[in-house]
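mind reviewing this fold:
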Amino acid sequence: MSRPRWRVTKPLRERIAAGHPWVYDRALEAARLSAGDIVTLVDERGPLATAFADPSSPIRARVLDLDPDASCDGAWARARASSAAARRARDPLLAGCTGRRLVHGEADGCPGLVIDAYADTAVVVYDGPAAARFWSARLADVLDGLGDSIRHVWVRGDRKERGGGEAARGNPPAEIVIAEDAARFAVDVRAGQKTGFFLDQRDNRRTIRTHAAGARVLNVFCYTGGFSLHAALGGATHVTSIDVAAPAIAAIAKNLELSKLPIDRHDRIAIDAFDFFEQAAARRERWDLVIVDPPSFAPSEKAKPAALKSYARLIELALTVTAPGGRFALASCSSHVGEADLLALCARPGLRLRASAGAASDHPVLPAFPEGRYLQFLLFDV
């Protein structure tokens, strides 16, 4: 098979063999390649792996297969998707959930590709133009490998431009109702956050449900009420949901109705989180369980110092409104901010870590690829 050979200039053989799927620009010789080109990575000892090129990204190559001669054709893509589907079929934590991740990029051997299912509709996200060029040519094969339950397919546009995209199969409905245990959520797959919903917090929402009985609960950065509904299902006496986006706040009422939960035990307020905390502290309001799940403050390593300052401020404000003897949950969705960073910010008398977790079980992590563990979730006794 004739394909370009791209020389790796740093000692990455063992790292790649262990399963790390990224090769950065500083570790590769200069080469004239187009986005999505299939290449054979080589070093001074010979061939290493098959990858696709991403000339415009700091992640200059993404490893597709440790076989340097792998075809990476449609049959190969179908087999990768079929393996991913088989892993989900064996996962008991997905029982009763009609929203789930089907393909989780690098961790499922499909670098740069994410596919989520909402009932019978699949939402496809490509991580950049190189991934789009490589995977779009194989999307039909991937979908075949995932089985015959997908009737509609929506391919999201650029992640920076919410609302863009196109149908690749069928006619995806504007809104889909999914089940997550006893909770029901209306999902906008075309313009909602991420692929429409935060599926990665599913298991953490279940954790909140088990700790919410008899509690007054505050959910900050609530989006459409994922943690809020699970807290209510767990027996919370009252829930307050805060988000700066008025449409997200408005959607909570519908999700409460869909889940047959009383709306009169739920306050929904569209306001900036920092402003709300300061106002609540001034009123000396307290909640028994406070959940803070902000958007990513650190999209890059360069942004990490400023992000840590923002997290520190949020932690301080959240603890101010947490009742003594209560609980405080903190989440971070940036791979640049790890668990150790968050624990350092939370190091103070009176806090004890009760639970630590990452993303839901259908968002696996490769042991050799810590960058893939982007989600942190910590639950403290206060």
In short: The domain at 5-65 is CATH 2.30.130.10 (Archaeosine Trna-guanine Transglycosylase; Chain: A, domain 4).
